[in-house]
Amino acid sequence: MEPRFNLFGTETGAKLAKRFAGLGQAVHQSPLPVLTAELVSLRASQLNGCGFCLDMHVKEAVAAGEDPLRLHLVAGWRETTVFTEAEQAALAFAEEGTLLARDGVSDETWANVRKHYDDEQVAALVCLVGLINAANRMAVITQQKGGSYQVGALAQAQ
């Protein structure tokens, strides 16, 4: 199946993509650990069924030094021993922030995130969950497929 629309092939889409990429870079330049950001993006993309974003964040995580075993276990992170308590807090936050229709982010999850991350990191984490969910939705709506992403392409879009 081919993508149904080249969103970024339009003038409006290209302008928005450039700004969107800039927001993503701001998150990656924050004190939130890059690998945590990739794990969060990967988990939200799994929940949203976004093949393009799954492809991107797996490749970016590996390029940043992430262990492929951990990437294979993200979907079942609660049933593993390979993620730190801080990463588990971020993954729970990503899930609850993605599945807002259920109950939103619980007080328990919020408290756990606050236990492990400072104000700057929490700001980045909140913005990251919002951004990855927006990216997932755009890619799923336009039926962008995973498999062709090249590491660093998003950074070059600025």
Automatic annotation (TrEMBL):
Carboxymuconolactone decarboxylase-like domain ranges (all copies): 15-96
Keyword Oxidoreductase attributed: yes
Taxonomy of the source species: Bacteria, Bacillati, Actinomycetota, Actinomycetes, Pseudonocardiales
Segments forming a coiled coil: none
Originating species: Lentzea guizhouensis
Record-given protein name: Alkylhydroperoxidase
PANTHER family: 4-CARBOXYMUCONOLACTONE DECARBOXYLASE FAMILY PROTEIN (AFU_ORTHOLOGUE AFUA_6G11590), BLL7811 PROTEIN
A GO molecular function held by the record: peroxiredoxin activity
Listed InterPro entries: AhpD-like, AhpD_core, CMD-like
Keyword Oxidoreductase attributed: yes
UniProt KW keywords: Oxidoreductase, Peroxidase
